[in-house]
Amino acid sequence: MAGESDKPNLEREPEKPKPMARTFSCPGCGGNVVIRFPGAVLSCACEFCHVVIDVTDSNYRIIEGFFYKMKGYEPFVPLGTRAELKGKTWEVIGYMVRSDVASSYMWEEYLLFNPYYGFRWLTNNGKHWNFVTMIKDKPSETKLFSGAYVFSASLYERKFKLYYRGAAKVEFVTGEFYWKVKADSRVEMSDFVSPPYMLSCEQDKSEKVWSLSEYVSIDEIESAFKLEKPLPRPMNYAPNQPIADTKVSSQISRMLLGAFLLLLALQFWQVCYNPETVVYSDAQAYRPNDKNAPTYTTKTFELTRPVSGVKLSFRSDVDNSWLYLSGELVNDDTGETYPFGETVEYYSGYDGGEGWSEGSRTVSKFISAVPKGKYYLNIDSESGDFRTQTPQQYSLAVSQGAQVNGNFWWVLAGLLVAPVLSWIVAYSADSIRWADSDYSPYRSSES
Amino acid sequence: MIKLNCPACGAEVEFRSKASVFSVCSFCRSTLVRQDMNLEKLGEMAELQDDLTPLQIGTKGQCDNEPFELVGRLRVAYDAGAWNEWYALSGDKEYWLSEAQGFYAFCRPVENSAGITRDSIFAGKSVYVDKLGMMDIDDARDVFCLYSEGELPFKAQLGRRSFSVDLSGPHLKMATIEITDSEVRIFKGRYLEFDEFNFQNLRRIDGW
After folding, report:
1. Which of A157, A309, A405, B173 gives a 20 to 30 Å CA spacing to B58?
2. What is the predicted pLDDT for the residue at A244?
3. What CATH number labels A277-401?
């Protein structure tokens, strides 16, 4: 029965109730033919022998004998079934199997009717279902060069990409139709997709009809028609099937965006309000090739921040040699130590007409999470400059508030994992979806 | 409103519009033509078989907040189908509600037919309609009157022939041109969804 939503206001009884259904004997086989909606339909196909009859003709003339006694196709949804779809009640009144002329690929179309709202179609194409509304709107077509090749269409700012183009013919019909069904009627068809919608254009010699399809899930079809046998499930993506649950993914992207903004804010705060400051700097002489060089202990200096990254920077003007500096950062109060061992090394030369260099005269060591307090450094030095004993010098600097820039980039990369993965999944699903199309954007035009 | 009596059966025949010159007596189905205050019987209207419209004479609706009421109907047919043209009044303003296969278009007469003739329809695939611009020709065909009821602004007797052209433009704009031996009439309007009319007093359809 009709739902409340599609029951328009009725205030007056009809002057004379007219019987709706009409029954007559099929001129092809004598079987009992029932027309449920005379006045709304022009032809019907006998359910027994499949001839098409002109129902506006008083003698019920056969207008198409092509399907006579043809082995039928069994519709998933029986004619006469009513279902609630898209908020309205529809009755299945006609069933048609059509095919692509070039590939003989077949699909099903169910004609739906509601006396107040007219006709709709339900299509079953590759186990995917679509609710189809004929539209009076004229989508604007984008043509390639000046030719007739239309590769996209737009309707109300929504752009649809060409998916399929071909000719369709009728393979089988049963039930009632609002036009006079002919077996040899071929139409040029184009499908343009923008999930979950599809715009289709059917054109014959006399007219061009546009329709808008909306993807309907199998669960929705099964529950709307209260089907006892479950419908076969598709293994692929339909041209206009929505790929991901966009609601969930938009929630995740909002969370990711929040995390990204937080990360940026932290980085900004760190750089602007908590910059790296040098708390101690010093220079110390050393004598190369001196096995008995004493350990150098710096003066104490103070780390003022509660917990901070500490950077030890060393510089020495070594030339084709190295200087190894090792020791520890010592907390003067607790005696806690943070060891280090860094090598300053620099080599350069002239080889085969080209100058080269390797290494660096500065080196630094990062020590993370050092609590505040008084500290000093113990430094041992060992030089690789064996040619001289002339005293050399190195300089050092201790900074607090040091940070590893890599952290920022690593967290950023971590945040990008999920969106990149989901994009890859969507991209591959979308390319699978387009694999059956001759107009796939994932294929180069040369192939 | 003009109230006259049917010359055949004596029943009261109402003309809500001064423009109406034709009526079908709702009691005896005589087709009547009005000349001023004089009613003359032309013939009789057969009953319409297989009528599956949710609309009826007396159905009220609205378009762009303008209420209207259906007062007459013309059912026209061609070799591959038929549709209804409902004559609607809003006060003394005339409108037409065209109903075909569940599509509803509401339109009003255009005063200036701008030199459109049957020959100009074939000249190209589109035609210029006053204040609407260029409109695409969707269909052009010979039609005849299959049935009429209520009051109408022309003699809509059975078999009345005309040439009907359906035009459409962007944003659901539509126009219709009707060419008879004596005149060219143009109507312009737009397609609306059934629910947008907010119809009242619809015909009851068994089982729905």
Report:
1. B173
2. 63
3. 2.60.120.380
